[in-house]
């Protein structure tokens, strides 16, 4: 074998089998004893998991398959899932290798980074170490194909597109919301009114200095909106952003903030016949829209040029349209 083996362990030997029988070795538990098939699971330093089929007669390895699990060396631990043995593989993220409905599954766990783990002998659960904490995990939703990861956004996502490079671009639009510039402007207005009121009272109040300190503290304070909530300006007020992000990591590559009362409704990636080598993003935007009775103060199609592999968006121009552009499609 050309790579270094990080760990190896002897799997459970079924009743009647010799302890030194071929195929009893596994990097964290033997998968497939009930079917009479023996596999060797090996974790490597480069973050790759190897699974090889062991011949029950000669002990030769065949049908070797590899899977990259993460950037850290792979550690393997034997656990129990639905009464059967499974393998918990830990790298920069954790994976569960198990059988479900007579099929093998290698599924990433929706959990933080782990260091070590061990399964309970009588219960279906895992006790694990993460950093300096001891955690007890329960495995649910076995057999599901998708692994869910949540990334927080500023406003409600309305549309999302995937670029051919794997980058994602989405529009977020919120009704009854302030933009960041409007929030700061409103805070400065409130602080100025506090100072003017203190100046009008003069020495009669004796608290002018205290009011000035309170106004300065109010301007510098930045309360987290997920905890305390966002200020609500009232109906007919809109806030929108255009976000370019990496969907695998959740990192935002670029964020374009629209002006107050501009609402992004639709987006479209396309190529024009006059310049087929470049991609463009079209965003349908309305201005000063009210929901009841429905009316718009204006509507435009804003065009951005896609730079590189959707590394950023460069604004080109906008075109006025008669009504709200609810949807767009290239042809």
Task: Give a brief description.
12% of the residues lie in helices and 44% in strands. By secondary structure, the protein is mostly beta strands.
Strand coverage percent: 35-45%
Fold-level CATH name of the largest domain: Methylamine Dehydrogenase, Chain H
- Sketch the major β-sheet: 4 strands, antiparallel
CATH class group of the largest domain: Mainly Beta
The spatial strand order of the largest sheet comes to 1-4-5-6
Task: Please tell me the overall pLDDT.
Answer: 82
Structural class: mainly beta
Rg, nearest Å: 29 Å
- Reported CATH architecture of the largest domain: 7 Propeller
- How far is the first residue's CA from the last residue's CA? 52 Å
- Give the overall silhouette: extended
Taken in chain order, the helices and strands follow as EEEEEEEEEEEEEEEHHHEEEEEE
How many structural domains can be distinguished in the coordinates?
Answer: 3
Count of extended strands: 21
Poorly predicted runs are 17-34
- What helical percentage do the residues reach? 10-25%
Task: Write out key terms for the chains shown.
331 residues, mainly beta, Methylamine Dehydrogenase, Chain H, 3 domains, four-stranded antiparallel sheet, 12% helix
Q: What's the layout of helices and strands?
A:
Elements: E1 5-7, E2 9-10, E3 25-26, E4 38-44, E5 48-54, E6 61-68, E7 75-81, E8 84-90, E9 94-100, E10 103-108, E11 116-119, E12 126-130, E13 133-137, E14 157-162, E15 168-175, H1 180-201, H2 208-220, H3 225-228, E16 238-246, E17 251-257, E18 262-272, E19 275-287, E20 298-307, E21 312-321
Antiparallel strand pairs: 1-4, 2-3, 4-5, 5-6, 7-8, 8-9, 9-10, 11-12, 12-13, 14-15, 15-16, 16-17, 18-19, 19-20, 20-21
Helix pairs in contact: 1-2
